[in-house]
Design brief:
Order of helices and strands: HEHHEHHHEHHHHH
CATH class: Mainly Alpha
Keywords: Cell membrane, Disulfide bond, G-protein coupled receptor, Glycoprotein, Membrane, Olfaction, Receptor, Sensory transduction, Transducer, Transmembrane, Transmembrane helix
Mean pLDDT: 82
Distance between the termini: 74 Å
Strand content: under 5%
GO molecular function: G protein-coupled receptor activity; olfactory receptor activity
Number of helices: 11
Number of strands: 3
Family: Belongs to the G-protein coupled receptor 1 family.
Largest sheet: 3 strands, mixed
Membrane topology: Multi-pass membrane protein
GO cellular component, one term: plasma membrane
Strand order of the largest sheet: 2-1-3
Shape: globular
Radius of gyration: 22 Å
CATH superfamily: Rhodopsin 7-helix transmembrane proteins
Structural class: mainly alpha
Helix content: over 70%
CATH architecture: Up-down Bundle
Number of domains: 1
Length: about 325
């Protein structure tokens, strides 16, 4: 136990050193190029989704409202880590100030908590659309959607604020080298000279409650959806109903499967899974879903695909007319 004689301000390092992916320095250049391309694709895809939904009056259904918020969260999540990663992979390492490190940690983990909440809200929207189609607009009013969005954000903030405070109050009197590509909670907490287990336990319990409850409610929603779909007499109606849910199931699998793999691999430790594998999984978990989400929705959602294509063609025609 640390006594009151510990001077937190004196022992806290001014900066942390992020090393990228330990054990894979030869791959850093290729990772920097790949991440840059992926990041640009994520920004363009999600920006396009937000622009189309925001400007098109025909896309004002609850599903598109939630998708717009999801795209904004994806951009924030990717932007909080990818520039740092590219800098590390380009130069071999990167320093980050104590305050910036904990700010990054806060935004990364808060964004992931918001994302799982949005996926639950989208599953609820699909449940109402399929199981109670006549009451869809009455149940999911703009006021209800706004309340759901605020609740999701408040839940993420409520979860992350104590965790960030617990880690930031730990004394860091030893190494300031973070064996990760960004300020991931456990990678930073293990550098402390005090016992980091309280914050790690809080993180494990809190994330298990949030993700576990969300996954349980999502599973229940889709069980009810499938029951309602298979009671439909028309085969075409069944296929249409399943098609409206296909993109959501794809996005959920893309988010939860890598996320669960990353969490369990981290808790197994380096004796079971090499450190570079753990870090690489955590990196891919933060950049792959934001990149692929717009593609999945663009391919699966017919109305959104048509509106997006129409917007792109209109922009191309305007650009060509200006060049004449």
């Amino acid at each position: 136990m640390l006594g009151p004689s510990y001077n937190h301000a004196m022992e806290t390092p001014a900066t942390f050193i992020l090393v990228g992916i330990p054990g894979l320095p030869s791959s850093h250049v290729w990772l920097a190029v790949s991440l840059s391309i992926t990041y640009v694709a994520a920004l363009l895809g999600n920006s396009l989704i937000v622009t189309v939904i925001w400007t098109d009056s025909a896309l004002q259904e609850p599903m598109y409202h939630l998708l717009c918020v999801l795209a904004a969260v994806d951009m924030a999540m990717a932007s909080s880590v990818v520039p740092t990663m590219v800098s590390i992979f380009s130069s071999g390492h990167s320093s980050i100030s104590f305050t910036a490190c904990f700010t990054q940690m806060y935004f990364v983990h808060a964004a992931t908590a918001m994302e799982t909440g949005l996926l639950l809200a989208m599953a609820f929207d699909r449940y109402v659309a399929v199981c109670k189609p006549l009451h869809h607009k009455r149940i999911l009013t703009p006021r209800v959607l706004w309340g759901m969005s605020v609740t999701i954000a408040v839940r993420a903030i409520t979860f992350m604020t104590p965790l960030s405070w617990m880690v930031s109050q730990l004394p860091f009197c030893g190494s300031n080298v973070v064996l990760h590509s960004y300020c991931e909670h456990m990678a930073v907490a293990t550098l402390a000279c005090a016992d980091p287990r309280p914050s790690c336990l809080y993180s494990l319990i809190g994330s298990s409650i949030i993700v576990g409850s969300d996954v349980a409610f999502i599973a229940a929603s889709y069980i009810l959806i499938l029951q309602a779909v298979f009671r439909l007499s028309s085969k075409n109606a069944q296929l249409k109903a399943l098609g409206t849910c296909g993109s959501h199931v794809g996005v959920m699998a893309l988010y939860y499967l890598p996320g669960m793999a990353s969490i369990h691999v981290a808790w197994l430790g380096t004796h079971a899974v090499p450190l570079h594998t753990q870090v690489l999984l955590a990196d891919l978990y933060l950049i792959i879903p934001p990149t692929l989400n717009p593609i999945i929705y663009g391919l699966k959602t017919n109305q959104l695909r048509k509106r997006t294509w129409s917007l792109l063609m209109r922009c191309l025609l305007e650009h060509s007319n200006l060049g004449l």
